[in-house]
Predict the 3D structure of the following.
Amino acid sequence: MHRLFLIALGLSASMTLMGQTPDTVFLEELTWTEVRRAIDDGTTTVIIPTAGTEQNGPHMVLGKHKYRINAGAERIARALGATLVAPVMSYVPEGDIDPPSGHMRYAGTLSISQDLFRELLQATARSLKAHGFTDILLIGDSGPNQPGMSDVAEELSEDWRDDGVAVHHISDWYKVGVFDDYLMSQGATREQIGMHAGLRDTSLLLAIAPEHVRRQVIAPGRGMDVDGVSGDPTLATAELGRVGYDLIFAAAMKQIRELMD
């Protein structure tokens, strides 16, 4: 009898654990019923993260922006509370395909037109609005994403004003000047920080996903037209990246709270 009771208790505990919603903010890690329940319980803010699939020099993977924005979006969602994160949009404008321009000159980069990017953003936002989300945050970790997100946020917010639904472009996530200022305060130059895959970019990925940095091939950049690197990634450290990550996160959170007040 005692043994049967313990078995029944164990089965009951297992079923309870199996029925619990996991501790995640990512939409794709939830079932539809879990999402419905979250919305009904007041989770009406959602983040649409965007990130390019682009060359990042010989030392960083093509998904650099995806790893950075996933980490950032999760941190923001948990800080805000009652917020979920949609799957990262990793197909974004990266240059002309034929003839190739911009990052498309390097193998592995994926590009779409600005018009298609805007359509994807709009369709994603419309889907989330249909389910009951009322604050939709567009957060991008790549430069070419910013104009499209700004335009879509403005257009949809105007269209949905009477519905009580707002779309916000959180541009301060990609205003990396706060991190550049810190790096220069530590003695770095603009040339060392660089515009792409240099000191700043590499430090951020080392802090967030160091397994995606090929340390054995890090070298000073020879220029965007040569190896796709602007700046000196040999100076990058995870410690610097963590400071930068905190500064960028704080700037984004300040803008979000101002927009949503």
User: Anything to note?
Assistant: The radius of gyration is 21 Å. Confidence is low (pLDDT under 50) at residues 4-9, 11-17.
